């Protein structure tokens, strides 16, 4: 087996040189196509084919020798395998015999094994079925629970059940039919829940809209009560301060504790929208619900801001403002507790819209109003609404600024109304002093306006120095102050005191003062009426301090600050002017009446032969008239006014006497006439002194007197009755005794002075030395006066 065959190198006997050439070409790899072409072209392919077969045979022999050389061991192995195959056949036979025996032994066991395998398969199927059944039962239980929650209105647990189904069960439900049903029903259930909660929200929207009016009214009422308590507390504090300043230290203090609990009306239920918003969150469509809620509430706001066409704005404004207040109280709660349901910028947009429409509505409605009280009612409720909503953080300044812009119109209407009331009060009063029969009348008409002259309570019945017009006018002015302060306070105006004072001056000057001046200039005015008007004006002038203090009190400003700042009313000057005008009018009437009595050119005999005893009759009438005038004026006029009236009357009488001497109607007069005038003047001087003392003027005007205003007539009479009248030209004597007399008047009067001795029967009259000397002195005075002129 180890011998190696030798390589055969000789060719077969049939080989030729051509075969060798062909073999060589094949071995070197030359292309045989030229030989093949040449063989076919010469028509001798068979020799070539024979040569190729010889070459093939030679190659097969070489291959065979090569195989024998290299695969001899393989052949040996194959032989050995054949031996092994025999052994294997024997083993196979033995195995088959053993297998037969084993099959016979394990047949029973195999049968049992098949049974066990079948049981295991059944068990697996049963377990799978149980598992599927349990899952289906859980799905059905969740579905049942969801249905039960929906039927009971418990939508959030129902959605949680659906969420659990979708997350944990839907993709793994083993029963296709059940899975398809569940998949189809879940969107329907979500839509059903959405519709249900939206219906609840719609019902809540309707319900809360009906409650907004009550909510707003309750909140505004609480604000009003709080404002009232604040005003009472401020008034009490002011009283305490005033009493403390006055020295009264025994003060009682109390602490009022207000319950902080919210009114039951303000406890409204927001559960439906909370639940709806939460459910929409669970559904993943919270933005849709937020938009839905915002749009619906905005529509409700616009609807609430529409005024009723069947009611006047005065009747409907409280309902409208209460709706607005309730609306924004609810929305404030929604924004703070809704968990993002309503954003702050959305609420701000709603508020700005409401404020804009309210301002526009107020401007339009105020333009239609022509009664000041109506403006005050509306404005007061608007400010209460603003104060209420300010507590919830809303910016109400634009609303208050809009109200501040209406103050001029309000005061214009208020002035017109007060002007009518003052005109009626002036027209209706009787120009007689007011009689107060009891203490309550005194409090209501005197003390209430600080018109008393003394702190001592008078005896009743008490005759006041003023007529019924004064307290009636004071009530009108006080009401004006209160209304003005009410309109200016709690609004956009910060310095209400100065504004009220401006409007107070306006009503006092343009209404009251003008009305008084019209009465003073009335052609039908009598002396008694003029006296009463003068008295009334004096009292009203004094009442200006009360009006100013009342304004400060209403504006909650301490009285001492007004006193320290020395704040005054311009109307005081105007009323002083009117008072002076009343005095002038009174004096003119008195003077006219005195002129009626003192027609000296008629009532006096200027060339009388004797001197009448007791004075002329006209002087008695003058005395009676002056006594009545002074007595009446003493009761109702202040002392300074009484002094002016008295001095004016006596001065007019004096001027009338002097004017009678100067008058062209008196061509001449004699000494008897002068002596008669002197008697009249003495009576008048005595009366003047008596009344000056009896009226108490002497205690006030210690350096003055009524007599002093008769000085010109007295000096003239003294000059005419003087024994040395030419002393008038002596500067020292003239300054001492005749200072009020004018040269021209004295010259005219002296020219008219003709003594009785100068008459037709003057030579028969008794003459004496004194008369001659006086005559000579008078003649000398006349000459010197002519020379002086």
Automatic annotation (TrEMBL):
Residues 51-220 form the Exocyst complex component EXOC6/Sec15 N-terminal domain. It holds the Pfam family Sec15_C. The keyword DNA-binding does not apply. Residues 399-752 form the Exocyst complex subunit EXOC6/Sec15 C-terminal domain. It comes from Nepenthes gracilis (Slender pitcher plant). This is Exocyst complex component. The keyword Coiled coil applies. Belongs to the SEC15 family. Keywords: Coiled coil, Exocytosis, Transport. InterPro entries: EXOC6/Sec15 (IPR007225), EXOC6/Sec15_C (IPR046361), EXOC6/Sec15_C_dom1 (IPR042045), EXOC6_Sec15_N (IPR048359), EXOC6PINT-1/Sec15/Tip20_C_dom2 (IPR042044). GO terms for biological process: Golgi to plasma membrane transport; intracellular protein transport; vesicle tethering involved in exocytosis. GO terms for cellular component: exocyst; membrane. Signal peptide: none annotated. Residues 49-105 form a coiled coil. It comes from the Eukaryota. Component of the exocyst complex involved in the docking of exocytic vesicles with fusion sites on the plasma membrane.
């Amino acid at each position: 087996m180890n011998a190696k065959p030798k390589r055969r190198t000789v060719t077969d006997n049939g080989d030729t040189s051509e075969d060798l050439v062909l073999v060589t070409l094949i071995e070197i790899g030359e292309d045989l196509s030229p030989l093949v072409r040449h063989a076919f072209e010469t028509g001798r392919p068979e020799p070539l084919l024979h040569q190729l077969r010889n070459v093939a045979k030679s190659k097969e022999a070489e291959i065979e020798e090569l195989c024998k050389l290299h695969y001899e061991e393989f052949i040996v192995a194959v032989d050995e395998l054949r031996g092994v195959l025999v052994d294997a056949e024997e083993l196979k036979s033995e195995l088959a015999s053993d297998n037969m025996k084993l099959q016979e032994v394990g047949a029973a066991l195999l049968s049992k094994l098949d049974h066990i395998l079948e049981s295991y398969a059944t068990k697996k199927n049963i377990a799978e079925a149980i598992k599927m059944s349990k899952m289906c039962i859980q799905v059905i239980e969740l579905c049942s629970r969801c249905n039960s929650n929906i039927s009971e209105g418990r939508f959030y647990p129902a959605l949680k059940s659906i969420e659990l189904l979708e997350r944990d069960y839907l993709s793994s439900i083993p029963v296709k039919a059940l899975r398809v049903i569940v998949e189809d029903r879940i969107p329907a259930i979500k839509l059903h829940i959405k519709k249900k909660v939206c219906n609840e929200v719609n019902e809540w929207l309707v319900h809360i809209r009906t409650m907004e009016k009550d909510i707003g009214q309750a909140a505004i009422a609480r604000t009003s009560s709080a404002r009232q308590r604040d005003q009472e507390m401020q008034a009490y504090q002011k009283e305490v301060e005033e009493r403390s300043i006055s020295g009264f230290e025994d003060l009682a203090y109390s602490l009022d504790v207000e319950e902080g609990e919210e009114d039951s009306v303000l406890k409204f239920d927001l559960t439906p929208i909370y639940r709806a918003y939460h459910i929409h969150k669970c559904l993943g469509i919270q933005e849709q619900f937020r938009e839905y809620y915002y749009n619906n509430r905005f529509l409700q706001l616009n609807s609430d801001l529409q005024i009723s066409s069947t009611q006047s704005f005065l009747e409907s404004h409280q309902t409208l403002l209460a709706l607005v207040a309730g609306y924004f109280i609810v929305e404030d709660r929604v924004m703070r507790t809704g968990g993002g349901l309503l954003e702050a910028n959305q609420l701000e947009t709603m508020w700005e819209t409401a404020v804009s429409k309210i301002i526009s509505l107020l401007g339009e409605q105020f333009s239609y109003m022509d009664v000041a009280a109506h403006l005050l009612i509306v404005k007061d409720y608007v400010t209460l609404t603003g104060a209420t909503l300010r507590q919830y953080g809303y910016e109400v300044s634009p609303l208050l600024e809009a109200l501040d812009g209406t103050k001029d119109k309000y005061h214009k209407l208020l002035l017109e109304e007060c002007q009518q009331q003052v005109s009626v009060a002036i027209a209706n009063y009787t120009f007689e002093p007011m009689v107060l029969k009891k203490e309550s009348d005194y409090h209501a008409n005197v003390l209430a306006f600080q018109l008393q002259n003394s702190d001592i309570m008078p005896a009743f019945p008490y005759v006041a120095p003023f007529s019924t017009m004064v307290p009636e006018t004071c009530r009108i002015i006080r009401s004006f102050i209160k209304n003005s302060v009410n309109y200016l306070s709690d609004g956009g105006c910060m310095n209400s005191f100065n504004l009220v004072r401006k409007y107070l001056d306006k009503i006092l000057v343009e209404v009251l003062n003008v009305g008084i001046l019209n009465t003073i200039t009335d052609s039908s005015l009598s002396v008694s009426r003029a006296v009463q008007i003068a008295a009334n004006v004096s009292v009203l002038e004094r009442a200006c301090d009360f009006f100013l203090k009342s304004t400060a009190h209403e504006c909650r400003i301490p009285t001492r600050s007004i006193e320290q700042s020395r704040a005054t009313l311009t109307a005081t000057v105007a009323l002083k002017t009117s008072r002076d005008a009343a005095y002038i009018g009174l004096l003119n009437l008195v003077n006219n009446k005195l002129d009626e009595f003192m027609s000296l050119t008629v009532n006096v005999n200027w060339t009388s032969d004797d001197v009448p005893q007791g004075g002329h009759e006209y002087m008695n009438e003058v005395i009676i008239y002056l006594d009545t005038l002074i007595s009446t004026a003493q009761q109702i006029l202040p002392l300074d006014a009484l002094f002016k009236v008295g001095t004016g009357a006596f001065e007019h009488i004096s001027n009338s006497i002097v004017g009678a001497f100067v008058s062209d109607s008196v061509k001449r007069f004699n000494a008897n006439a002068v002596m008669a005038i002197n008697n009249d003047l003495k009576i008048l001087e005595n009366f003047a002194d008596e009344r000056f003392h009896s009226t108490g003027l002497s205690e006030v005007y210690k350096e003055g007197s009524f007599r002093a205003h008769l000085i010109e007539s007295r000096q003239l009479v003294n000059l005419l009755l003087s024994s040395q009248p030419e002393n008038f030209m002596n500067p020292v004597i003239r300054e001492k005794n005749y200072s009020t007399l004018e040269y021209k008047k004295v010259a005219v009067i002296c020219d008219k002075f003709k003594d009785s001795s100068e008459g037709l029967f003057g030579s028969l009259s008794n003459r004496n030395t004194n008369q001659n000397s006086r005559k000579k002195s008078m003649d000398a005075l006349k000459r010197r006066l002519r020379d002086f002129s």
